[in-house]
Design brief:
Layout (H helix, E strand, L loop, with lengths): L13 E2 L4 E7 L3 E4 L2 E7 L3 E4 L4 E8 L1 E4 L2 E3 L2 E3 L2
Length: 78
C-alpha cells in the first residue's frame, strides 16, 4: 500500500519496538510508537502507531495513523 503525501510526515520522536512504557505521554510535534504503551496520550501533534505496536490508551491528538493494535478512546482533530 502506498502512502499519500499527507500520510508521510517526519517523526521527531520514537519509542522503539523493544520499548514498553506506561503513564501519561505528552509531546509537541510528532511521535511514532513501535513498542508497547499503556496510559494516556495528549498532544496537538501527529501520532503514528506502527505495525506491530500495542497501545492501550485514551488518545487525544491532532492527527493519527494506526498500523498496530489500539484499545481505548480516540479523538483526533484531523
Amino acid at each position: 500500500m502506498s502512502k499519500t503525501k499527507d500520510q508521510v510526515r517526519e517523526v521527531t520522536t520514537a519509542l522503539g519496538n523493544e520499548t514498553s512504557f506506561s503513564g501519561i505521554m505528552r509531546f509537541k510535534d510528532s511521535l511514532k510508537i513501535n513498542g508497547m504503551f499503556t496510559g494516556e496520550i495528549k498532544s496537538n501533534g501527529y501520532l503514528h502507531i506502527e505495525n506491530g505496536a500495542v497501545v492501550n490508551a485514551d488518545i487525544f491528538v491532532g492527527s493519527l495513523i494506526i498500523g498496530g493494535t489500539v484499545r481505548g478512546n480516540i479523538q483526533a482533530s484531523e
